[in-house]
Amino acid sequence: MGNVVLVTGVARRLSGRFIRSVQREPGVDRVIGVDSVPPEHPIGDAEFVRADIRQPMIAKVLAEHAVDTVVHLDVTGMPLGRSRGGRALVKETNVIGTMQLLGACQKAPSVRRLVVKSTTSVYGSAPRDPAVFRETTQPKSLPGGGFAKDAVEVEGYVRGFARRRPDVAVAVLRFANILGPSADSPLAEYFSLPVLPTVLGYDPRLQFVHEDDVLDVLRVASREAERGTLNSGTFNVAGDGVLLLSQTARRLGKPTVPVLLPAVRWVGAALRGVGVTDFSREQIRLLTHGRVVDTTQMRETLGFTPRYTTAGTFEDFAACRGPGLLPPDRLARTVDRIAAALPHEA
Amino acid sequence: MADAKVIPLDEDTRARRGARAGGGGRPRGRSTGRPGLAAVRTDEAAPRDDASRDGSSRDGSSRDDVSRDDVSRDDGTREDAAREDAAREDTAVADAGSAGQGDADGGVGDASVRAHDEPGGASPAAALGAVAGALTDAVAGAADRVLGGRWDRRVAGGLSFLRRRITGDYEVDEFGFDEELTDQVLMSLLRPLFDSYFRVEVKGVENIPSEGGALVVGNHSGTLPLDALMAQVAVHDHHPAGRHLRLLAADLVFVLPLVNELARKAGHTLACAEDAQLLLERGEVVGVMPEGFKGLGKPFSERYKLQRFGRGGFVSTALRTGVPIVPCSIVGAEEIYPMVGDAKILARLLGFPYFPVTPTFPWLGPLGLVPLPTKWTIQFGEPIPTDGYAPEAADDPMLVFNLTDQVRETIQHTLYKLLVRRRSVFF
User: Fold this and answer.
1) CATH number at residue B332
2) For the NAD-dependent epimerase/dehydratase domain, which residue ranges apply (chain A) (predicted)?
3) What is the pLDDT of residues B103-159, one digit of tens each?
4) Pair B247, B304 in one domain
5) CB atoms within 10 A of CB A42
6) Binary contact (A128, B264; C-beta < 8 A)
7) A231, A344, B55, B340 — which has fewest CB within 10 A?
């Protein structure tokens, strides 16, 4: 039974929301939140333990509280806040942190279940890949750097851990781009630019998953599997359907500026320079070729159905952000007015 | 239908052609009956009639019936349209009258209220209303005449299309297929090429099932993959269920900017087993040209000689999903860009599989990109069922090779047959 749950990276808002919701689960006695900085948001009745998962001290925390379920959410693409560390620190937390945490779990006999947050960017995005990735698809070109490479390495360590501790149920959840009212992903930052730079001649297919669904699926994965389902393994998690980048821009009401592919890197560097957004190489690849995953496993094996579709997720996100320079409802009204001004036949 | 077997005289055809020429430029209302298309078929009727006079197959004459039927139906619709137009004009006139009256009444009413302040204000207001009403109707009538009927409905349709597009309110599937854009824009761009330039004759399109998956396997030629696009138009416009052919394209397509965007929106996807299987499992009609670049970029001297059909991957996918294989033979595409040479060094520099040299291409610059106006025939053959095999059949190399050969031979023989029947490359 998942009595004692340990959640990493609780200083993040998504983890904070998860820790608050997991306390209400039946059968959960204690929840322990771990991070190297204290969270700014409330975490309810959960205990906060200030520990850096890159240090061996995490093993002591696991043993002391007899943790049986570890939810590893400290695999992220962005530094927390502007000031701290930047990309190097994020990479270290992702990779070294996971190594230490898994090492600690291996030594802790009480651990029965491990849930790891990963990302669909482990598939990379390349024109020579199939249009829809399944969990078993071997990507043609592995991501060369950035968060995607971290996630590939993290998944490698997790697979090694699963081999060494076959008694632990391991679930790796590959999330599509997470959006929602409090999402702080690079893509959410990109969508909050007033004018969206796009790559000329490419209209990538994007998939989103809503924060609420992320919390739900994490809860499904961190408790005992229900009858007829299996919650260990690797699962793609994404909302139904697909949006093109051009569609998202129109639904947000933001003008796009197509830029030639070689020049996109300069634009990205310039934007990064002024601290507007993190326009990493991997992000540019996503915005060039797009990525769509197959979610049959999530539905049939994990037994999870997301509440939000990709379009619904984006609608919710857009509603929170407010309209851009070209609000779609105003454009629609203009067209309606033109249509009304035309003479009609009886 | 007995009289339909009578061989139409050339005068007859010429008269019909004359009638069409006199019929006033563009056909009206593409949605109703496609007069343009039928007209093209009328032209085609002549050579085929010659053939049937020479004592060719029953097939030709029966098809003739169809085309004649089309023509008569077409005439019918045109008459209908004319009658409708006339009726509409009548109502429009009536409307104008009543509107003018109404305006005038309103003006008078208004004026009578304000009569004390402005004596004599009534008549200018009324006149203005009447003039405006008459003007609107005149414009509407002129537009009706110029744009060819139902113009306002078309404009309204266009505006609602525009409204959906600019607000992003449309759906695409997981492969990026934008059905609305394909139907409304991309197909309309390809249709003139299909109907008027290559004058494609489509045969046996009913061999594609009306629902459920099917794998259409065609020959590939012509330096640029226009044949695949024409096959897509053929399936969409001529199949009774208006199905979309989901083409599998080479990876080069998805590397090139703009091309990849359009290809995805038109419903094409990468030629790989995963994508093909997923589409077939969803009951789509998938089009594949297994010769790939070997067929597309073969020299002019080897025209209509089918190249190797890959490793038969398309057959295993069809076996796995149990969908029928529909062979498709395309005649006419080989001659659009007669490739007499291949600049291999340039091709390697640009990263293309070949760099065509045609009698016109690099020499005339962009003008060399204009394809020759050959006359095309697309024949869909009898479907080859694959659902009768055991589930492990897809992994049986002998069976896969045999089926691959069967498909290849069918296409090759159909090509030869069509070539024998062809009178000339351009007509």
Assistant:
1) 3.40.1130.10
2) 5-237
3) 434 333 343 334 344 444 445 566 666 776 776 676 666 666 655 556 777 788 888
4) yes
5) 10
6) no
7) B55
- How close, in Å, is residue B5 to chain A by CA atoms? 45
B269 inside 8 A of chain A by CB: yes
Q: Is residue B352 part of a domain?
A: no
Structural domains of chain B, count? 2
Same domain, B320 and B195: yes
B140, B156, B174 ranked by CB distance to A339: nearest: B156
The answer to whether residue B201 scores a pLDDT higher than 60 is yes
| Phi, psi (degrees; rounded to nearest 5) at A233 | 130, -165
Distance from CA of B297 to the nearest CA of A (A): 21
Same domain, yes or no, for B194 and B320?
yes
Q: Is residue B383 part of a domain?
A: yes
Is B281 in the same domain as B396?
A: yes
Question: Closest Cα of chain A to B260: distance in Å?
Answer: 7
User: ipTM of this predicted complex?
Assistant: 0.89
Q: What is the pLDDT at residue B363?
A: 87
Q: Which residue's entry shows tokens 């537009």?
A: B143
Cross-chain Cβ contact A343/B136 below 8 Å:
yes
Residue B37 placed within a domain:
yes
Sign of the alpha-carbon dihedral angle for B178, B180, B186, B192: positive
Other beta carbons within 10 angstroms of residue B94's beta carbon come to 11
Confirm if A208 and A178 have CB atoms less than 8 A apart.
yes
User: CB-CB: which of B139, B176, B254 is closest to A244?
Assistant: B176
* B209/B324 same-domain check: yes
pTM value > 0.80 = no
